[in-house]
Amino acid sequence: MTKLLLFDIDGTLISTGGAGGRAMARAFQDVFGFSNGLGSISMAGRTDAWIVAQMAAEHGLAYDADAFVRFHDTYVGYLTAEVQRPAEQKGILPGVRQL
């Protein structure tokens, strides 16, 4: 029998030192024009699509597949830069290599 294990990556397997949140906030401001787009939204265990949909809803913005594509393209560019920035508590979490 084959087993498939699925994990939430950031905070479970690795720590990016907050790179994802910073990249999302920057992309949301660029695409939708609102700073502090994350507000009180928790990113833990959620998909990018769910998070940005909640961000849009919190600010009363129309949100559809085209908006997500614009956001995602911008977000990936920022994320690429953010994950390369030095940060404390960044790296592979304990036990992951053994797993």
Describe this structure in words.
The chain has 99 residues and is mainly α. It contains 3 helices and 2 strands. It has a two-stranded antiparallel sheet with strand order 1-2. Helix 1 (19-32) packs across helix 3 (65-82). The mean pLDDT is 87.
Q: How is this structure best summarized?
A:
It is built from 3 helices and 2 strands.
Helix content: 40-55%
Going across the major beta sheet, what is the strand order?
Answer: 1-2
Distance between the termini: 18 Å
Q: Could you list the spans in which at least 5 consecutive residues all have pLDDT below 50?
A: none
Overall average pLDDT: 87
Please provide the ordered H/E string of secondary-structure elements.
EHHHE
Shape: globular
What's the count of strands? 2
The main pleated sheet reads as: 2 strands, antiparallel
Query: Which class do the helix and strand fractions yield?
Result: mainly alpha
Question: What's the gyration radius in Å?
Answer: 15 Å
Strand content: 5-15%
Total helical segments: 3
How are the secondary structure elements laid out?
Layout: E1 14-16, H1 19-32, H2 48-58, H3 65-82, E2 90-92
Antiparallel strand pairs: 1-2
Helix pairs in contact: 1-3
Which descriptors would you attach to this protein?
mainly alpha; 6% strand; 99 residues
